[in-house]
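User: I'm putting together notes for a lab meeting next week and I want to include a structural view of one of the chains we've been expressing. I don't have a solved structure, so I'd like a prediction I can at least talk through. The sequence is below, exactly as it appears in our construct file.
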Amino acid sequence: DPVPVWLDPSHGPLLTDLVASGLVTPVWCTSWRKDATTIIGPILGLPHFPYLDLPRPQITTSHPNGYLWKRDHVDAWLGTAPAIWIDDDFTPRDHSWAAERTAGGHPTLLIQPDPSTGLRPSHISEARRWASARAAALL
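Assistant: Thanks for the context. Below is the predicted structure for the 139-residue chain, given as structure tokens.
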């Protein structure tokens, strides 16, 4: 079943600029799986990004356990790595998880765009500030 996707061509340069800063390493974490890097990425003019090969759960809601279904897979994949995760479908339980990871020494920033307006330059700026502060703290 096709799902409508609204793409903003200005996202490509915003994301490319952030990646070029060397502060972050992007990974697609979407139910689009590999198609994100082969379909969405090229439309936005993005280079190839790796992707997390998420399963195809048989669920009727994106929050079957009260939190975003992807979270358990992302958590296992991340291990102890710091992370910025941008998604418009987090719940309060996801934000608690991120706070717990951070308190445990694994810095985690969740950025949640409003699904009706999507990713904004301010979200990318927030990610850049956070990653810059982390990099400065390591010096």
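A couple of points you could mention at the meeting. The chain has five helices and two strands. The helical segments are 11-20, 34-44, 71-78, 92-103, 121-138.

User: Perfect, that's what I needed.
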